[in-house]
Write a structure and sequence with these properties.
The structure holds three protein chains of three kinds. By secondary structure, chain A is α+β, with helices and mostly antiparallel strands. Chain A has 13 helices and 19 strands. Chain B has one domain: MetI-like fold (Orthogonal Bundle). Chain B is built from ten helices and no strands. Classes of the chains: A alpha+beta, B mainly alpha, C mainly alpha.
Amino acid sequence: MQIARRTMLLLGAAALAAPRALAQPRDSLVVGNPVEPPHLDPTTHVAGSIREVVYANLYQGLTLIDEQGQPYPCLAERWDVSPDNLAYTFHLRRGVTFHDGRPFTSADVVFTLDRARGPQSTNANKRLFETIASVEATGPHTVRVTLSRPVGSFLYDMGSADAAIVSEATAATNTTNPIGTGPFRFVRWVRGDRVELDRYPQYWGEAPRIARVTFRFISDAQAQAAALRSGDVHVFPTFGAPELFEELRRDPNFEVLLGLTEGEVILAMNHRRRPLNDVRVRRAVTHALDRQAINEGAVGGYGRLIGTHYPPHYPDALDLTGMYPHDVNRARALLREAGVGSGFQARLILPPFPYARRAGEIVQAMLAEVGIRATIQVYQGPQWLSEVFRPPYDYDFTIIAHTEPFDFPNYARPDWYIGWENQAYRDLIERWFRAVDPAERSALAQQAQRMLAEECVAGFLFQLPKTGVQRRGLTGMWRNSPVQANDVTRAAWS
Amino acid sequence: MSGVLRAARANPALAAALLLGLLLLAVCLLATVWTPHAPGRINMRLRFAPPSDVHWLGTDHFGRDLASMMMRGARNTVAIALSGVLAGAVPGVAVGIWAAARQGLAGRAVMRVVDFLIAFPAVLAAVVVAAVMGPGLGTAVVAIAVASVPVFARLARVAALEVLARDFVAASRAAGRGEGWILVSHVLPNIAGLVLVQAASQLAVAALIEAGLSFLGLGMQPPEPSLGRMLADSQTHLSRAPQLALYPGALLALIVLCFSMLGDGLRDALDPRGRA
Amino acid sequence: MLRIVAERLLGFLVALLATAVAAFVLLDIVPGDPALNMLGTEAREDTLAAARALLGLDRPAHERLLIWLAGLPFGEFGVSFRYRVPIADLVAEAAAVTVPLAMLAMALAVCTALPLALVSVLRPRGAVDWAVGLLSQLSLAVPNFWLGLLLILLFSISLGWLPAGGFPGWSGGIWPALSALLLPAVALAAPQAGILARVARAALLETLAEPYIRTARAKGLSRAAVLFRHALRNALPPVVTVAGVQFSVMLAGSIIVENLFVLPGLGRLTFQAIQQNDLILVRNTVLLLAAAVMLVNMLVDIAYAAIDPRLRAR
């Protein structure tokens, strides 16, 4: 005991030892990511870890999404939209080449979109391309895309990584030797450690200031901190452990970038099951949750509490966190009212992500306070997906961050895992889909936010934070994360 | 029992192991009915609290009482190890005795399989079991049983062969007793001591497998505390709260040490010639 | 002798085939669809069907088993569901971490176990012998992942001498790679050193009891001189045998240590493949590790038969 205490003192003293000053690199950048990608083709895999390497850096779309979450012209220089909002004519940028030297033309756009919506498509977001009725090359540098119905978010959708423009010649091998049109080209992948990208000399646009960017994959939080301190990694756009984040914050060598992602972390409830199909029970669950405590335990308190399914940093977001506050007595009363006053058994199925496992343990304890006895099962990724998201939807609760932008319309889908039956919401979402006027879209989105909160469609917990740590002197990294990406095209050392 | 006590007096290591074992057993039994605090109770305002009168060893990253979690975790480790070894010993001994009685091709083939299974790394087998069954309490028990069956089968076969060669077995055979009667009445009682000794040693292996699976997140699930998972969770907080790694690991090592010393000591007591 | 070799070889091949079939059958019933992992929460029936076809999962199980078995002798293990590259490549990259790790751990274990055994038999039942016995007992009881955590605490976090995890690859030079393997090798070696020290001590004591040693002692050689000149060499065979088995166990048993230190070796590859339902990869790595264990056992068996004629009769 005495020895252990002395050891701890020694260790504590060493951990607080004065930080070394680090030499600053000039035109190289090492970015640390927590997860190694399975491969490097975002058009055939859902993994965010792919996007965090290649989006905007290596591959580009007709449009791309900027740090504010707005689409901007990229491979399409400009476009004309027909008055009925059904036909988009894209005027493509000239003088663009793929990294293998091939010129970029309208044929590549036709190929990319037809591949994504075709019968053989393994695009993880094929529904983005579902409304496309036809794609034709009207010239070597013009493409006309016709939609079957107006889609308010079409230009945004074309900026997603799922719509990255690829060449037919390399589409099959992009998994291991990715070829895009972006400012960086693929050099090599040392599996288990890093992917290296170099500045592409023939890039059509403004050349990036960084000549070589290396993405290193370090999952363990202690190792992440050590890599930053030793100078092996210059920036972690999303640093793993909130507890260590505090330490780095005090270190003058580093600067922290606190922002938010598009990920609403929710305690999903299965509406296909009793008693969770009863709104009183769902309200009781919401009253049982101390969101601030969950936020602190899961992500160190860096997330922002949410009361509905909408990114709280958007201008038209409503703060509805006060609607059903933490109130154990009220929760118990509601359960009694619903006829389950003695509580009930439930299964809380968790994915293996750290935030979900941590939040899950806390949520379980909070549910137990009001008599809901939830057993936790942590599944590996695919099993979690198939139990929760595929029929017969065999779960009661799960915890998930819905990271896609504008995903609140999903609650209207009858085949979605939530299973919420509400015609009024479905009508509302149908109007939102077709609406093109920004003011109208905003008003409809606010109405949707209110409905989701009032019905307690899910336990809305917090917005997943983006906790970035970087070496002082680095500029141009994103603070927020409107899409899963680490866009380093504007990064530079001051 | 009196034999064990006599042996303990002659062998201080065995005496120490017995004492330690009784102490651990008492803690485990106590943990079933009482811990200083509810072991799963989360308190976000008390995260990483230092040791105090209220929280003897401090609290973890969720403000849970470390001492209570360790007590309950130790109980879980011991209980799982015991069930797993038992679940492996029964079929293992049965297979071993059967193979001893049946010396033909079938018996030889079974022992070949046993030889292979003994060499097969327990952790790898456990991870495959977890892949098939999914994480949980049952997985840990099955994984330990799978690792234990061949160990007991080999031991039981060798011991049974020795018993079968003795005179009183031949006498029984001459008296017309059936093979089954001989196995149950002569062989089983005569190899029981050896099996017990092996069980004690195997408990040490079992505790390590349980902790290893929990460390990988494949063992017992929250809110039940588990020493292995506590160690896995502590990795993130090593620089801030090293005690979260130090204490549960030390307790785990103590449990394993106790079982293996118990096994060694009992083996010496049973067969004094084996002592070097 | 030839008959024994042939018999063991045949047994090895049969066991290998049985393991392959068992691994396939066991892992084929694991719940979860690998295609779902590619497509995530927004998967649809049509994209799932296309993905399954791409992964070869649209064929019935017995066909996939036969295709796999037929490819094995030619080193065609199939293509990983998750990484979409040939499994042989993945395994080769991972082996470049695990094999050196096991070798390093083995070297550490031998280099600590042998000297400890030697000093402890200089005076059996003396204080040193007792201390060594306790140490080996302890090394067996300490879980290697806890030891690993303690090593990280001391050498990475407090002293900052060695990395807490990760592997920079061999291309960046020998030293960075070796320094990344050092702590995990120590964690892996400790319990094996404990076993090895016990085996070596027992073997040495047995040799020291032989008549020719007594003769040497009678001629006036000191105990230490006898130990080094005669006993050590004769006690080596059992030690080498145990070390051989330990090496194959370390290859397969490094799952936990590789996870703790985030090393991209065979153990972590297997564990992650299980997490990702990349079952085609799991069954291949499991088969490979099992084959390594069986191969070592077979070689030990044959070597024993060659040394000891009595075994040949059995």
